[in-house]
Amino acid sequence: MKKIVAGIVVIIIIGVVLLTIGQKSTKTTTTGDTMSGMNNAPSQSSSTTPAATNSVVISNFSFSPASITVKKGTTVTWTNKDSTAHTVTENDGKDGPKSTTLNPGQNYSFTFNAAGSFAYICSIHPNMTGTVTVTE
Description:
Blueprint: H1 2-23, E1 28-31, E2 34-37, E3 55-59, E4 62-64, E5 67-71, E6 74-80, E7 89-90, E8 107-112, E9 116-121, E10 129-135
Parallel strand pairs: 1-8, 3-6, 5-10
Antiparallel strand pairs: 1-2, 3-4, 6-8, 7-9, 9-10
């Protein structure tokens, strides 16, 4: 019985260490399929368009705003301000956003080059949904 308890304790310790290492990983941002390191500062745009039209915050297990409308050629940036990891993953078969796992504080950007409606989810938490409508 002592060996079983000791084994369980070792597994828990290993899990905590792995989670801690994952939390301390370098913050990254992705655009399309490329990745580059960055700090925790939010993305800044030199555009005169208000940031609310091309920025989505991930918080409280939701995308906010859940639906946005942008013009073709606009880059949308999602920022994970939640306490856990999330993704931004197209789920309607279109060429939409496909992020890697975004840990708290990380960003993902995707440029929409085609008009239409693009539905996406968090593949870790599929009840989290959003839509980007792209106009000409």
